[in-house]
Specification:
By secondary structure, the protein is mainly alpha-helical. It has 18 helices and no strands. The protein has one domain: Amino acid/polyamine transporter I, CATH 1.20.1740.
Length: 431
């Protein structure tokens, strides 16, 4: 039974892997459509890191209190209302984990198709999803080894990118802008929309909390994994944005997905810049892997509690919820085939921000427990997170109503299925 539990390093690798994915290598291009001052952009990424850290502190307290896999589903069900927990699990299944998987393979295709048109077809991304799902169907230990190796490759690659980025002299028409225009930009609705892209990029700060009962000594290892993982990611994110701004112009990056490839193409030869694109595609594999691993546990936790989904409450001989794992893969493939990159990122980001806010709010209902981690400066940090989040969501509704309403539609359908389940269970009791 040696591989039945993972240590803090693997848990931290899972956090880092889930956080560092599509957003950091794609979202700057969309941010530059509304925000172009370097101070504004760095402020956005620092704010995203600060609030991800607050979220990680909150999840560390929640996870060590309940000590049960399922993450936010468990927290919201017990502290707010079963409907809140169910809604989160529904969102996790339909958007929360599946959309980031879909976005990751879309980004992978964008980067690779710029190098070779053969990769422009969705069958490549679908193949990646299927292979990784198969890997995660066998053992937790195997999943852990794959996650550690793929995350190590990811971190090494990002370290090389940052080193190269600061080694080269900024291009003449670089996107760096240290003027006073940031004072105006931070008051615009576009600043809040740019923040939503960034908060999406930080999604994953709660990853290890979803698999608490698969972590050794969670009281010690869960907070360490969540907080250290979030801190590392924040530093890397800020440095990467500076690199991209140094090596490219606003015109080059605005509205583009493959920003890393475009940035380094100005200072590297064609053959060398191609390797940048290939390695970004490779590191996105770790992101897809992490979301597949985590997301299936949330759906499994819901399936155990609700008759409507009871057919999913099954584990194989290795203790892996294979039915939820493969259902998640199927929905991810569906989103890959039916949505555009920007559209899926925005409505997923909106919903994830909404549900993350509920989770952080739930901490304030938590009574102190002797053997659980205690979030410092509680509830002031949580209140700051909630106010910040509501500000972003409000501006998002104003600026991008279509994507916001799509996100709310997913939530509404989830609420309907909840009450349908309640009626189904009531009829069974009556019979």
């Amino acid at each position: 039974m040696r591989d039945s539990k993972i240590g803090w390093k693997t848990a931290a690798a899972l956090v880092i892997s889930n956080m560092i994915g599509t957003g950091v290598f794609t979202s700057l291009g969309y941010q530059l459509l509304d925000v172009q001052n370097t101070y504004s952009i760095i402020l956005i990424w620092v704010l995203g890191g600060v609030f991800a850290f607050i979220g990680a502190l909150s999840c560390a307290e929640l996870g060590t209190h309940f000590k049960a896999s399922g993450g936010d589903y468990v927290f919201l069900s017990k502290l707010i209302h079963p409907l809140a927990g169910y809604s989160y699990a529904w969102i996790s299944l339909t958007v929360g984990f599946t959309a980031p998987i879909a976005i990751s393979v879309m980004a992978m295709e964008n980067y690779l198709s710029a190098l070779n048109p053969l990769f422009a077809h969705s069958f490549f991304g679908i193949g990646v999803i299927l292979i990784l799902t198969l890997i995660h169907s066998f053992s937790i230990g195997q999943s852990g080894v794959f996650q550690n190796v793929s995350t190590a490759i990811k971190l090494l690659f990002i370290g090389v990118l940052i080193a190269l980025g600061f080694y080269f002299t900024p291009i003449e028409q670089s996107a760096l802008d240290f003027s006073s225009s940031w004072q105006t930009e931070v008051t615009l609705p576009g600043f809040a929309v740019a923040l939503l892209f960034v908060t999406y990029a930080y999604t994953g700060w709660n990853s290890a909390a979803y698999i608490v009962d698969e972590i050794r000594a969670p009281r010690k290892n869960l907070p360490k994994a969540l907080l250290l993982g979030t801190l590392i990611v924040t530093i890397l994110y800020v440095l990467l944005q500076l690199v991209f701004l140094r090596l490219s112009s606003v015109e080059q990056l605005s509205g583009k997905v493959e920003i890393a490839l475009l940035s380094f193409s100005s200072v590297l030869s064609d053959s060398s810049s191609k390797w940048i694109g290939y390695f970004i595609a490779i590191q996105l594999i770790a992101t897809v892997s992490g979301y597949l691993w985590i997301g299936s546990r949330v759906t499994f936790a819901m399936a155990k509690d609700y008759a409507l989904w009871s057919f999913l409450a099954h584990k194989n001989s290795n203790g892996i919820p294979v039915r939820t794992l493969w259902l998640q893969a199927a929905i991810s493939i569906l989103l890959t085939l039916t949505g555009t990159f920007e559209e899926v990122m925005l409505y997923a980001g909106f919903v994830l921000q909404l549900m993350g806010t509920l989770t952080v709010a739930s901490v304030m209902h938590l009574k102190p427990q002797k053997d659980a981690f205690k979030s410092p400066l509680k509830p002031y940090l949580q209140i700051a997170f909630i106010l910040f989040s509501l500000w972003i969501l409000g501006y998002m509704l104003y600026q991008r109503p279509k994507e916001s309403l799509i996100g709310l539609l997913f939530v509404t359908v989830g609420i309907i299925t909840y009450f349908f389940n309640q009626r189904t269970q009531q009829k069974k009791h009556e019979d």
